[in-house]
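Schema walk-through. Below, the input block comes first and the output block second. Nothing else is stored per chain. Lengths vary across the set, and this one has 258 residues.
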Amino acid sequence: MKPPYLLEAPLATHLSEQPSESGPKTEGPPSLESLLDHGHLWRGKGQYTQGFHSTSFIELDQVLPHGGWPQDAIIELISATPGLGDVALVLPELARLSQQEGVVACIAPPWLLHGPMLEESGVCLERLLCVPATANQSQRTQKPKQDSLKSQQWAAEQIIKSGGCNGLLYWQTKPLPFIHYRRLQMLCGQFQCPVFMFHQSAPLNSPSSVRLKIMDRTETHLHIQVLKVRGAWGQQQLNISMQSPAYHRYQLAKTNSD
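--- output ---
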């Protein structure tokens, strides 16, 4: 039989002429359900995703297309100052992911992770893998070496490729090359590993599914702006209530580290 792109008659005609060894097959176009299950159709209420989980914040769940964090995509969190509230926003998800078999990786955090606060918030420290920033990158007065940035990019990809990573937290001093974004996005979908990327300025072009900007924080609320939500409207401003004890422990830990 000729390749499909060389057939003069419709492909269905040639297939019907082939002998069937397993008996007659049902003819007709594929069902809508089968197309949706394989991600061949775009839904107006959001992009195709293999799964999602609640952010634990009602205000944020209401603006996300699937009512939670996508489990196969890149989520970007922008804050002018590291520790403004970005980690507190993903802390419930970090705790949930760390309770599963596998590890949760942290790439180049700008400060020493506060173990007691994380543990009290439900994070399993035994499953938390930390790849620290290099000495040069930790010093804000010096530019990070290109080799160290490439090493972190390589580490992020290899950790996801291992197949044992439940989630990745990735801090960056500057946006990644676009090709690296694309590779990460493909790995997210292949291995069902969400990647939370922390920036100080919003990248101009990235394939992220969600992009949030931390505007300000108070003792009881976190003010954020939704810059991008694939499959839904962005630019909303949210005032998220942070009444949980975990948020107050986060604030105390951040104050002590400062």
